[in-house]
Design a protein that fits this description.
Elements (H helix, E strand, L loop, with lengths): L30 H4 L1 H14 L17 H17 L4 H44 L10 H9 L16
Helix pairs in contact: 3-4
Length: about 170
């Protein structure tokens, strides 16, 4: 069996009662077991870094009801990140939300335009039906319908009689 070298391991115990696996300093303990207050101090520093920006400091978002407003907001977010006024994490979290808002606006705009076109077509069809006094004739489509339309009408010509003058 291969023995682990425990001579350079910390002599302290973890909260669960297990031996600490960190490397020992000259005193036989790891940095955090030798300086127990340092761990909580460093934890506080990390906590201060991750705090949210107070609401009064954050810039309010404008009304995002048009494509132009979303575009301007994206430009504003980029400028604020570049200037250091906005945390990049906040900008990263805003990015998919702004993209979703943009797609929603585009979809609603397309739906509005489609509804207007459908209304216009319905109006034109209704006007066309009022103007038509003759009922629509049934026509055959395709080659057969074309051939029937091009075929000469039944005439009183006799077979073999020429069509032209003379």
């Amino acid at each position: 069996m291969i023995k682990k070298q425990t001579s350079n391991r910390c002599q302290g115990k973890t909260k669960q009662g297990q031996p600490c696996r960190a490397a020992a300093t000259a005193g036989g303990l790891c940095y955090f077991h030798a300086n127990p207050s340092k761990a909580s101090e460093l934890g506080c520093v990390g906590g201060r870094k991750n705090r949210r920006v107070p609401a009064e400091v954050a810039t309010a978002l404008p009304n995002l009801d048009s494509i132009l407003a979303v575009r301007n907001t994206v430009a504003q977010v980029i400028a604020e990140v570049y200037a250091g006024r906005l945390n990049p994490r906040i900008a990263t979290s805003l990015s998919p939300l702004l993209g979703l808002q943009l797609r929603t606006i585009e979809t609603s705009e397309l739906e509005r335009r489609l509804a207007a076109l459908e209304k216009q077509v319905a109006t034109e069809v209704a006007k066309g039906e009022e103007e038509d006094e003759d009922p629509p004739r049934k026509r055959r489509g395709g080659l057969r319908g074309w051939a029937e339309a091009q075929a000469p009408k039944q005439s009183s010509r006799k077979p073999g009689q020429s069509v032209g003058p003379g």
